[in-house]
Amino acid sequence: MNLESVKTLYRAEMARSLRTVLQSIVSPVLSTSLYFVVFGAAIGTRISEVDGVSYGAFIVPGLIMLMLLTQSVSNASFGIFFPRFSGTIYEVLSAPMSYWEVVVGYVGAAASKSLILGIIVLVTARLFVPYSIEHPLMMALFLVLTAVTFSLLGFIIGIWADGFEKLQLVPLLVITPLTFLGGTFYSIDMLPPFWQAVTLANPVVYLVSGFRWSFYGISDVSPLVSLAMILLFLAAALAVVAWIFRTGYRLKP
Amino acid sequence: MSEARDATVIRVEGLSKTFAGGFEALRAVDLEIRRGEIFALLGPNGAGKTTLISVICGLVNPSQGRVLVDGHDSVQEFREARARIGLVPQELTNDAFIKVWDTVSFSRGLFGKPPDPAHIERVLRSLSLWEKRHNRMITLSGGMKRRVLIAKALAHEPEILFLDEPTAGVDVALRRDMWEVVRQLRDAGVTIILTTHYIEEAEEMADRIGVIRSGELLLVEGKHALMQQLGRKELTLHLREPLATVPERLARHALSLAEEGHALVYTYDAESGEEDGTGIAELLADLEAAGIAVKDLHTRQSSLEEIFVNLVKEEA
């Protein structure tokens, strides 16, 4: 393992987001806080408890997940797309680094950034609603696995995209709808039976459910199923990345 | 490895590259680069120069053949191979907002070397970039950006430096500076491979020249050998009285008429040893015997440019 190279790439990526601190940290925290104000404090007081948890507290895990997913995807996709777009990728490709070291650098940095954001939002949420965390270790595990998995997804999108439109396309048309329909703002047993069944095809449901379980011990699906699903997504993302490297897809003709 | 350093630093064997669209960029290229030389890869646009460099540096996968860098296979032992190479790309690619010092230090780390501010300082000073070290890339001129790319390529102390069209779009004064930098690097023991389509550049800089066209390496020669072998000298004799044809008694000489009969052009090998001579003395004697009066004469040796144009034309 070429540790010095990985460290350099990781640090450079982290430094890049510090240069744009407003965009990378302040804006996601602000928008998530708005959700807390509107749904938690304003509307939430008019909604009765969900599964014995106040509505404001109920949406905390879902909102963190929502932010974690979108930030992981956008950080990682931009992180690899930008050097491809500007041409500076030549340097990384000509460096004595294996593909997996490149992934650890880029994806590690993207996942770290969204984890930091996740923690900031978690702390911020405490200002608006009281909540408790029943299984902190499991919560941390869900956070890390989700950040890594969706950063890998972002990395794949950043390699696939051949223009800025495509870079926005997947987050806008796929990730956002899935997160909104993934049980962030409601428990899926609030849905009619047909839609409950449809919802189970949405991968985000498992993430939100498992994450919420680590807070309150309540869940739509078993936390073990949630964990298994995340690992499945992770394996799928790794498989796609391995394929990209084997074929040189869009990186190395 | 180190006790018997091979004189060949890069060995390219039967290298072919066919891109996904079916375009054959390289066709069975064999090439040896000698340690410590300046090698110029000369060819028209689209000849395959950049592709060849890209395969050696690991940016493009070869379709066939292999590349050995200091004895290390560029695919199987890519770490050893790539660690020895620095690449200055043709395009002025850069991260607009990063500072000069940061981007050059980044390059060193990326190649797995521990930080060494003293080395980075040396590199920046040698390229007259020291004053600009806190500048962001976006504030630099094109020539300065090119220097930063060279500094980045040198940050990890490579033994081999690839310069892909180093002086494309660079003004004359800066081009001279760039050549000076390259010479200093060679003096420091770095092997340099540069691509260019300016013949002037190859003629000025290179120890050896490879001519590439349509993915094929047409020839590889020492610069002087190339000019000697292919360099023709021309003697032009301006005549007092025009001639309609070359007179019979001068037929044994390689003569042709020019300027509507006002001049005779004699072509000869500049380097054909002394024993058989250039034939000029005999020619002049024959001219006198034929009663042809010569008003003036001058000689001209073909430049590398003409050699190159002839070569590429011949093969086409």
Automatic annotation (TrEMBL), chain A:
<feature type="transmembrane region" description="Helical">
    <location>
        <begin position="167"/>
        <end position="188"/>
    </location>
</feature>
<dbReference type="InterPro" id="IPR047817">
    <property type="entry name" value="ABC2_TM_bact-type"/>
</dbReference>
<comment type="similarity">
    <text>Belongs to the ABC-2 integral membrane protein family.</text>
</comment>
<dbReference type="InterPro" id="IPR013525">
    <property type="entry name" value="ABC2_TM"/>
</dbReference>
<feature type="transmembrane region" description="Helical">
    <location>
        <begin position="20"/>
        <end position="43"/>
    </location>
</feature>
<keyword id="KW-0472">Membrane</keyword>
<dbReference type="InterPro" id="IPR052522">
    <property type="entry name" value="ABC-2_transport_permease"/>
</dbReference>
<dbReference type="Pfam" id="PF01061">
    <property type="entry name" value="ABC2_membrane"/>
</dbReference>
<keyword id="KW-1003">Cell membrane</keyword>
<feature type="domain" description="ABC transmembrane type-2">
    <location>
        <begin position="19"/>
        <end position="248"/>
    </location>
</feature>
<dbReference type="GO" id="GO:0140359">
    <property type="term" value="F:ABC-type transporter activity"/>
</dbReference>
<feature type="transmembrane region" description="Helical">
    <location>
        <begin position="55"/>
        <end position="82"/>
    </location>
</feature>
<protein>
    <recommendedName>
        <fullName>Transport permease protein</fullName>
    </recommendedName>
</protein>
<feature type="transmembrane region" description="Helical">
    <location>
        <begin position="200"/>
        <end position="218"/>
    </location>
</feature>
<feature type="transmembrane region" description="Helical">
    <location>
        <begin position="137"/>
        <end position="161"/>
    </location>
</feature>
<dbReference type="GO" id="GO:0043190">
    <property type="term" value="C:ATP-binding cassette (ABC) transporter complex"/>
</dbReference>
<keyword id="KW-0812">Transmembrane</keyword>
<feature type="transmembrane region" description="Helical">
    <location>
        <begin position="102"/>
        <end position="125"/>
    </location>
</feature>
<feature type="transmembrane region" description="Helical">
    <location>
        <begin position="224"/>
        <end position="245"/>
    </location>
</feature>
<keyword id="KW-0813">Transport</keyword>
<dbReference type="InterPro" id="IPR000412">
    <property type="entry name" value="ABC_2_transport"/>
</dbReference>
<keyword id="KW-1133">Transmembrane helix</keyword>
TrEMBL record, chain B:
<keyword id="KW-0547">Nucleotide-binding</keyword>
<dbReference type="GO" id="GO:0005524">
    <property type="term" value="F:ATP binding"/>
</dbReference>
<dbReference type="InterPro" id="IPR003593">
    <property type="entry name" value="AAA+_ATPase"/>
</dbReference>
<dbReference type="GO" id="GO:0016887">
    <property type="term" value="F:ATP hydrolysis activity"/>
</dbReference>
<dbReference type="InterPro" id="IPR017871">
    <property type="entry name" value="ABC_transporter-like_CS"/>
</dbReference>
<keyword id="KW-0813">Transport</keyword>
<dbReference type="InterPro" id="IPR050763">
    <property type="entry name" value="ABC_transporter_ATP-binding"/>
</dbReference>
<protein>
    <submittedName>
        <fullName>ABC-2 type transport system ATP-binding protein</fullName>
    </submittedName>
</protein>
<feature type="domain" description="ABC transporter">
    <location>
        <begin position="10"/>
        <end position="239"/>
    </location>
</feature>
<keyword id="KW-0067">ATP-binding</keyword>
<dbReference type="InterPro" id="IPR003439">
    <property type="entry name" value="ABC_transporter-like_ATP-bd"/>
</dbReference>
<dbReference type="Pfam" id="PF00005">
    <property type="entry name" value="ABC_tran"/>
</dbReference>
<dbReference type="InterPro" id="IPR027417">
    <property type="entry name" value="P-loop_NTPase"/>
</dbReference>
